[in-house]
Write a structure and sequence with these properties.
This protein is of the alpha+beta class. The chain is built from six helices and 15 strands. The strands form four sheets. Strands 1, 2, 3, 4, 5, 8, 10, 11 and 13 form a nine-stranded mixed β-sheet that branches. A two-stranded antiparallel sheet has the order 6-7. It has a two-stranded antiparallel sheet with strand order 9-12. The mean pLDDT is 91.
C-alpha cells in the first residue's frame, strides 16, 4: 500500500488508478487531535483497517495525482535519526564507523515543495538522496531478527545540508535542520510491498535536472543492522 497526505494534510491511500483516496473518515474514529496524528493512528490500527484500505485502493476514484498537492506523508515525526556516511558514494574511502545524528522534525517538507536556503553564509548547500525507514511501533534493543518487524514502511528522503556552520561536532544538527531541509515523499510504501529494501533505486532532481542517482545496495550498513543498532 501507498500511504499519502494531500491537499492540506488529508490522509489518503494511493489507488491503482493513480488517484489518491481520502481515508480521513476511517481515522476520525480514533479522535485525532489534528492531522499530525492521522499517520500514528493508522500505524497502530493497520491490521484492523487493512481490508477497507485495500478495497479503496483497488476501487480508486479519488483525486488524480496530477491534480492533488501531495504533502509530506507525515507532518510531525517524533524524531528523525540519520546516518553519517552510510553510502560508498563512488569512493574508495575506508568503511565508516556506524554513527548517527539527529535532524529537527521541524525541517519536514513535502513532494514538490521548494527548499528555502537560509541567509547564513554556508560553505555550500548539499542535497542527498536517501531511503527513510518509518518505524511502526515503540521499539528498543531489538535483535537483528526482531528489527524488521518494527518497520512500517519506506519513503524517499532528501537530506539537505548547509555545510560549514557552527563547530564541527554540532554542525550536523545546525546545518541540517533549517525549515524545508527534510524532504519526504511522495508517499510511504508499506513494508509488505517492498521485497528487499537493499534493492531500491533513488534519485534527486533539482529543477528538472538529475543531480544524483544511486541504489540502496551501496549502503555500508543495511536497514536491518541500522534499526537494530
Amino acid at each position: 500500500m501507498r500511504i499519502a497526505a494531500f491537499d492540506g494534510g488529508k490522509p489518503g491511500i494511493v489507488a491503482s488508478d493513480d488517484t489518491v483516496v481520502d481515508i480521513g473518515d476511517l481515522l476520525r474514529r480514533y479522535d485525532p487531535l489534528d492531522p499530525a496524528d492521522y499517520l500514528p493512528d493508522l500505524i497502530v490500527h493497520l491490521d484492523e483497517l487493512r481490508p477497507e484500505l485495500e478495497r479503496r485502493a483497488a476501487a480508486g476514484g479519488g483525486v488524480p495525482l496530477a491534480q492533488a498537492k501531495l504533502d509530506a506523508p507525515f507532518a510531525r515525526p517524533g524524531k528523525i535519526i540519520c546516518l553519517m556516511g552510510n553510502y560508498r558514494e563512488f569512493t574508495d574511502r575506508p568503511l565508516q564507523k556506524l554513527d548517527l545524528f539527529f535532524k529537527s522534525p521541524e525541517s519536514v517538507s513535502g513532494d514538490g515543495d521548494t527548499v528555502v536556503l537560509p541567509p547564513h553564509q554556508a560553505d555550500i548547500f548539499h542535497h542527498e538522496a536517501e531511503i527513510a525507514v518509518v518505524i511502526g511501533r515503540e521499539a528498543k534493543d531489538l535483535s537483528d531478527d526482531e528489527a524488521m518487524d518494527a518497520v512500517f514502511g519506506y519513503t524517499a528522503f532528501n537530506d539537505v545540508s548547509a555545510r560549514g556552520l557552527g563547530r564541527s561536532e554540532i554542525n550536523s544538527f545546525l546545518g541540517k535542520s533549517f525549515d524545508t531541509f527534510g524532504g519526504f515523499g511522495p508517499w510511504i510504501v508499506t513494508a509488505d510491498a517492498i521485497a528487499d529494501p537493499q534493492d531500491l533505486h533513488i534519485t534527486v532532481d533539482v529543477n528538472g535536472e538529475r543531480r544524483q542517482t544511486g541504489t540502496t545496495a551501496k549502503m555500508i550498513f543495511d536497514v536491518k543492522t541500522l534499526v537494530s543498532y
